[in-house]
Amino acid sequence: MTSTVHKHILDNGLTVLLKPVYNTPIINWRVLYRVGSRNERTGQTGISHWVEHMMFKGTPTWPGGVLDQVISREGAHWNAHTFIDFTAYYETMPADRIDLALQIEADRMTNALFEEEEVASERTVIISERQGNENSPTFWLGEEVTGAAFRVHPYHHEIIGDMADLETMTRDDLYGHYRRYYMPNNAIAVAVGNFDPDRMLARIIELYGDIPTGELPPPVLRPEPEQRGERRVEVRRAGQTSFLKIAYKAPRAADPDWFKLAVLESVLAGPSGMGGGSVGNKTSRLYRELILTGLAAGISCSLVPTVDPYLMEFNVVVREGRTLEEAQAVLDAQLERVRNEDISEAELHKAIKQARALFAYSTESVSDQSFWMAFCENFDSYTWFENYVANLSAVTVADVRAAAEQYLDPRRRTVGWYIPENEGAAQ
């Protein structure tokens, strides 16, 4: 991918990435803050996500509810999302209306209100969101597996937070979190679309350049100790379907080994990704061994690029009439096989081709490209995004074998079973 990105760091520390794309009438503007659930302490889990909600509740310039109408009137779209490593806000607008987006994010970088009544109202919303998640067996299983896999690092807890914290956090807690992390030198601003980069930069400097630099929060320095034995968890709740999740420790995205595991993932279960789009996994090893044999109704693997070492997760939906023991035995056999045998050159090329295709599908729009640039700049550099295909294509058969041997180590994994129980049974 030929680079057309213009990178600037303003005097107040704001990182700015500009990528003109002239064949579109729109622009995506995104501001990412380097704060997510990994930055939260016990007693305030879920606070980053709650602050995200509060950022839509108004400033003195734009009271709550006004901007929804303004954005709609301009034929635009805006939203936000919280992840384990960041919180990001974005607007996709007609190119000649983008100045409104620049003004909105500059304003709420420093002027969000956090009114007591809005905090109380949003507490109900967020608790309901947590309760909605709890309707899913895979949420309960994922929370238990992740919590067991990480005992020290704050990747331990869910982005939504623990119910105990959602019930007790205060307005001052939320506002303090906002003031601690929302500052230009802790932010990445990205524009992708139809604009002149010099004029865009001048306007960004005009709107953001005088926002004061803050004292950067301390880094997260709680590395997870090496795991020296398999961990197992069981969740027993009402339901009809059994689920299996096996999570192995994976490297951070800036580690070259990450791309080796991405190819391995594609071989075993088909590629996954953070963006949109999809490619089939019907030729993958686990599809053939678990789906076509009638053992499972669904299989997937998840490998997410992260700031710190995270997880490579295998997920199996066990078919009715089959058992968790059967499904795990087949999955274990396939994982052991890839640790002990080289994949074929044909498998390698197919896996890389599928992973490249998924990446292409997930980076088509200006919004997708803006997301990936900010996302990658947060954990490494926007060039990680630009070099993705080249790094993927450089992976060899020997690389895949070495990565499987190192990372698919049963001593460094967490196994989770969701065991359904009939209504009224002990839970």
Note down, in words, how this protein is organized.
41% of the residues lie in helices and 19% in strands. It has helices spanning 47-54, 66-73, 98-108, 116-133, 137-149, 163-168, 171-181, 197-208, 257-269, 285-291, 324-340, 345-361, 366-379, 382-386, 388-393, 397-407; strands at 6-9, 15-20, 26-33, 77-82, 87-94, 187-193, 231-238, 243-250, 296-303, 310-318, 413-421. Helix 1 (47-54) crosses helix 7. The protein is built from 16 helices and eleven strands. It is of the alpha+beta class and 427 residues long. The chain has two domains: 6-208, Cytochrome Bc1 Complex, Chain A, domain 1 (2-Layer Sandwich), CATH 3.30.830; 231-421, Metalloenzyme, LuxS/M16 peptidase-like (Cytochrome Bc1 Complex, Chain A, domain 1, 2-Layer Sandwich), CATH 3.30.830. The protein has a six-stranded mixed β-sheet, sandwiched between helices.
CATH level 3 topology of the largest domain: Cytochrome Bc1 Complex, Chain A, domain 1
Give helix and strand order, one letter per element, not per position: EEEHHEEHHHHHEHEEHHEEHHHHHHE
User: pLDDT average, as an integer?
Assistant: 94
Radius of gyration: 23 Å
What count of helical segments does DSSP give? 16
The CATH superfamily title of the largest domain: Metalloenzyme, LuxS/M16 peptidase-like
Count of the domains: 2
- Class of the largest domain in CATH? Alpha Beta
Task: Kindly state the percentage of residues in helix.
Answer: 40-55%
Low-confidence stretches: none
Order of strands side by side in the largest beta sheet?
Answer: 1-2-6-3-5-4
Percent of residues in beta strands? 15-25%
- Give the N-to-C terminal Cα separation: 53 Å
